[in-house]
What we know:
The chain is an all-alpha fold. It has helices at about 5-25, 30-65.
Amino acid sequence: MSGVSIERIENAIRIVAVLIQKSGNEAYWPILERLEAERDALLSRQTRLARYLSERNAMTTDDAAKPPATASPAVRTECSRPGERRHSQRTNR
């Protein structure tokens, strides 16, 4: 999917949390909040994708259970008899 995994984002969240705790610096909070938002967005995308794919697989399974549609009779457009080649109406000048 993307180059950034949930695990990497969560590791970064832990690192920033330690920075906030040790430094007491409020300046790191926006970074922590951004990382949380990115993690949540990635989780949401993964969850939605899994749901859509499972719905698609369910539809494919349902389609496989249906009898095949009747085929239309073949229409010959290339030639009228086997081995006969269709000639162009166009002449070279």
